[in-house]
Amino acid sequence: MIDLRSDTVTWPTEEMRLAMAQAVVGDDVYGEDPTINRLEELGAQKVGKEAALFVPSGTMSNLVALLAHTRPGEEIIVGAEAHIYYYEVGGLARVAGVLPRLIDDRDGIFTAEAIEKAFRPPNPHFPETRLICLENTHNRGGGAITPVENMREIYDLAREHGLSVHLDGARIFNAAVATGCPVTDFTRYADSVTVCLSKGLSAPVGSLLTGTRDFVTRARKARKLVGGGMRQAGVLAAAGIVALEKMVDRLAEDHANARHLAGGLAVIPGMIIDPRRVQTNIVSYELTSRITDGEFLMRLLDRGVLAGSSAPQRIRMVANRMVSAADIEIALEAVRAVMACGS
Ligand SMILES: Cc1ncc(COP(=O)(O)O)c(C=O)c1O
Predict the structure, then answer these.
(1) Tens digit of pLDDT for each residue in 20-44?
(2) Would residue 3 count as lying in a domain?
(3) Does ligand 1 come within 6 angstroms of the Cβ of 57?
(4) Which of 21, 168, 179, 286 shows the greatest Cβ crowding within 10 Å of its Cβ?
(5) 148: nearest Cα among 161, 134, 159, 162
(6) Quick check: CB of 58 below 6 Å from ligand 1?
(7) Based on the structure, what is the number of domains in the chain?
(8) Measured from the CA of 138, which atom of ligand 1 is nearest?
């Protein structure tokens, strides 16, 4: 099976499995797991922050970030397509109790201009705005990269208005590898950053929430509140260390495979795709023929290819470590065959 549904389907590498088996552990809720402590130090250092917190998932990292940045009843500015708003079970409202003020992030790129328009003047009728949430790269935006320059402008704007910035950087290393910029060029323009270890970086579990020491102390308490203290999770952190140290550079292979996939799809009749918009590992395209997305996915599955749908008639394929360049050719052949008999 060629699994292009997500980069979350990646299995841990042999080196990760070995590191997991040999991990020295302790009770992390007492701060005594040396492997988790090492991962947190390494993660903080990689993204240029003072501290980091190991959490089970990107979803928990973002939720804990909201709990640490805001108080119930405050407002956050967030993209209508952002993972935090779209895919996290409404945790922002239900658990953090914040009010989302939505901006249009359909193309996956944030601008200071769009965010500034969402600001409201001080007024007794309005909630307090506290936080701007960004996502880079942007999942529903087809892996789009918000350029460093935009991040800087947004951060300056946030500072002017006394707001904080949280970056959902689940795939921030993809942005760094694709642009050739150090990851800190992006992360310096956010107060807190979520980094996922279990997507393209291939760790089996885990994310890091990074920020100042003070922020991470608050986040640690919020993690406890949502039940995320993990005891001897050094066995998981050990894989995360390998992810950060060994798996970042190879993301370029996923990007090359995604570009190749997009180029091949662009010449198949019955779909709309602009390969120039494929900047990282996510390929998103629209079916224009009579075949429905459901049928398309089922017929692909019959040919041994798994993909996903992110909206009606919108197909998503994500290049990842489990899929080789040769697999991409096979996937393209499967799409050609499905479209030839489905249009
Ligand atoms: C941009 C983004 N943020 C957060 C998450 C959540 O990560 P997790 O699945 O580990 O909860 C995802 C998952 O795909 C994502 O794409």
Answers:
(1) 999 999 999 999 999 999 999 999 9
(2) no
(3) yes
(4) 168
(5) 134
(6) yes
(7) 2
(8) 1
